[in-house]
Amino acid sequence: MQLFIDTNILLSFYALNQEDLGELRKLADRVINKEVTLLITDQIIDEFYRNREQRLEGSLKSFYGQTFNPQLPQICENYAEEADRWRSALKEYEQAHSVMVARVAIDIKAKNLQTDQIIRSFFENGHKVALDQAIIDRARLRMSVGNPPGKNNSLGDAINWECLLNIVPDQTDLFLISGDKDYSSPLGDDELSGFLRDEWARRKQSKILFYRRLSAFFKDQFPDIGMANSRDRDYLVRELSNCQSLADVQKIVARLSSYPEFTAGQANSILLAALNNQRVAWSIDDDNIYSFLLGIMTRYQQYLDVEMLDQLKSLFEQRLS
């Protein structure tokens, strides 16, 4: 099996829980044992480490800045024994939080998180694709004439695509996992771009099996690797920020509402979408959307960015007045 995992999928590993990371190691073992040929480009490695710290900062911002400063009502001071235990527990929480923040910071700097270890295994045991000037020139030509994949003035995806065309043997199918819309068809995000599909078929006499999510890939190809639903939640949260219509927002919110809980990072991202995507903001007078966002604000209030929370409360007042 020839497999290519895009940078955005690799970076999403930092949001996996311990159980999911354990399952992900099964794929790493298959790569080590050469059951899977994981194609690694210099571009992927550079993009990953270039964006690693920013991704971690976004994931940990709410935890690092987390404060717990409840006020003890004056009447409770009369319960001296209980008040002392309450203060002791609060102090223990603050100390545990400081210790955890320090340990996480050390492992981040040393690139020694569990995710880092798995990614390092991928990079060390994957099949390195050599990058040469000819590939760069073809990528520049692809970008200049407007052919996918890639964005204006960004060569990254084009370089990766040309590397894959160069290295994958003819008549050999490729499994490609990417959450990047540059690979997707405008007719459906879960479908590969028709242009890329036809180009691959013409030049390689084979096909690409395209996946937007790692969990979907595992379900089809390695059902013994059982990823939890955190990845699906992350995918839907990203899609919420990209919604282009009320119907899109309603569809995504309906799917998100089926999940009983979210991580602090996911909760912040959901509300950030309400601030940054006008389609979401304009939809909050819909009862289901309003209830969902209000529920996120209420349930996860202690984990949310204070400034963002204030902006959202103001937005709610404006839209519903």
How would you characterize the overall build of this protein?
The protein has 321 residues and is of the alpha/beta class. It has three domains: 2-61 and 113-221, Rossmann fold; 67-109; 230-320, no CATH class. It is built from 15 helices and seven strands. The strands form two sheets. A five-stranded parallel beta sheet has the order 3-2-1-4-7. The chain starts with a strand and ends with a helix.
Provide the spatial order of strands within the biggest beta sheet. 3-2-1-4-7
* CATH class categorisation of the largest domain: Alpha Beta
The number of strands is 7
Q: Measure the end-to-end span.
A: 57 Å
Instruction: Determine the CATH superfamily of the largest domain.
Output: 5'-nuclease
- Low confidence ranges: none
For the record, the CATH architecture of the largest domain stands as 3-Layer(aba) Sandwich
The backbone outline, from C-alpha atoms, is: globular
Q: Assess the beta-strand content as a share of residues.
A: 5-15%
Mean pLDDT: 87
The third-level CATH topology of the largest domain is Rossmann fold
What labels would you give this structure?
321 residues; alpha/beta; Rossmann fold; two-stranded antiparallel ribbon; globular
Topology of helices and strands:
Blueprint lengths: L1 E4 L1 H5 L6 H15 L4 E5 H23 L15 H30 L4 H12 L1 E3 L3 H13 L10 H12 L6 E4 L6 E2 L2 E5 L1 H11 L3 E4 L2 H8 L8 H12 L4 H11 L7 H13 L1 H4 L5 H13 L6 H15 L1
Parallel strand pairs: 1-2, 1-4, 2-3, 4-7
Antiparallel strand pairs: 5-6
Helix pairs in contact: 2-5, 6-7, 10-11, 10-12, 12-15
